[in-house]
Predict the 3D structure of the following.
Amino acid sequence: MKIEFVKADRAKPASTGAVAVLVLEGGQLTLAAQDVDKLIGGALSRAVGAGRFTGAKGQSLELIAPAGMEAARITVIGAGSAPEFSGDIAESFGAAAFAAVKTSGADTLTVLLPGAKPEEAARAAFGARLASYRFDKYRTTEKPEKKPSVKTVRIACDAPSAAQTAYGPLDAVADGVFFTRDLVSEPANVLYPEEFARRVKALETLGLEVEILGEKDMAKLGMGSLLGVGQGSVRESQLAVIQWKGAADPKAQPIAFVGKGVCFDSGGISIKGADGMEDMKWDMGGAGAVAGLMCALAGRKAKANVVGILGLVENMPDGAAQRPGDVVKSMNGKTIEVINTDAEGRLVLADALHYCNDRFKPKFMVDLATLTGAIIISLGHDFGGLFSNNDELSGNLLAAGLGEGEALWRMPLPAAYEKQIESAIADLKNTGGRPGGSITAALFLQHFVGETPWAHLDIASTAWRKPSTNATVPDGASGYGVRLLNRLVADCYEG
Ligand code: BES
Ligand code: MN
Ligand code: ZN
């Protein structure tokens, strides 16, 4: 899909395809809606008054082949109630307009935004692009009428070249979100640890430095905790180390993001039930988000030094697989009794977090992981769980999440629950029972971060959205985390 910014012509809004206008809550027409209404002899205001369309968020209305305009259809989108027009409203407008007309047969969508600021016009383009995501590489027989028809989105605004400039970094962020969505959508027979690593290595063309460690390298480093998880799989485990050196001093202390990359989680010997097991192809959503973030930061040339570490494994049950009751030793020297081989994400992150801290001594570490089913029970799908040993980092993450529509909710890390993960024969055990399952998982991770400011985002609740509740996030892989962390870097760590 192509995105263009053009000068809004209020006398002749568009000559072809579909045209989108915004109407405010209460049925009040925006500037563009008034222009169109005039051209078509008041049919737009009559249509708005004729039914239940009130301008509420999520509402839309279609006028087909209106007399007085060359465009084939007009899509009226409800803005919802807000004190004033904003980038957020523009983004939702672009996304909702695209979703409403994508399979209509129109090949061009013109989003009318006369009077909007360049940043707002750019956000409308960003919304449309995010809404256009599809994972259709494996479909060979889709009916033509189900295929998207829109090839070009044209944003009509007052200062198109300023809007185009403002859109540049947003386009890089959308590239990152799409990179994540592609990784998360891929089936596990295609995307196994080495293939994931290859795709990340290919990001070097963006100026990222990528190192890939294999099982021998990790064994030398003493990563018994991570390696135990992958030992029942025919696929080799990998650790990807990605660096972006965008700060004025490339040696300045970096910030770091660490992702759980379980390319398939069968549960291992503590095998999962068949129902829904196919979802466990997206158990690499944390690593996927970190990879997409690094892609976004490089794409927009962020002025910060950032490290991304991905722990890539497949959790399978074969004759070599780890058994419940096994004791493994992590790189930081702590021993772990593996009570349940399905609590594997924390075992992967234990070594990845320690390695990150030990090698890079970052200002802070944030890990992302589809870690526990319990976080879905706690929060539903509209929030990721935030666990942290640092209030400032937590505050920054909560604010970034709100700003990008990727909300987090802070959860506690009570020392009293540590006894749930005490082992009779080792330093720790890898499960803490059902009570507070997401909390004991986070407490486990905390044993591997030393004194470094750290936050853990449990994104099992948000990495996959079905049904979609927001046009910028179509059904399936959400790419949750890329926007949030990009915003954290932009607002807090770039000069
Ligand atoms: N990958 C799962 C968590 C998960 C569940 C992610 C549902 C997305 C959707 C994780 O590895 C897991 O199996 N966790 C167990 C932990 C338990 C064995 C302590 C869980 O949540 O049941
Ligand atoms: Mn598991
Ligand atoms: Zn898992």
About this structure: The pocket of BES (ligand 1) is lined by residues 265, 279, 283, 340, 342-345, 370, 372-374, 431, 437, 460 (CB under 6 Å).
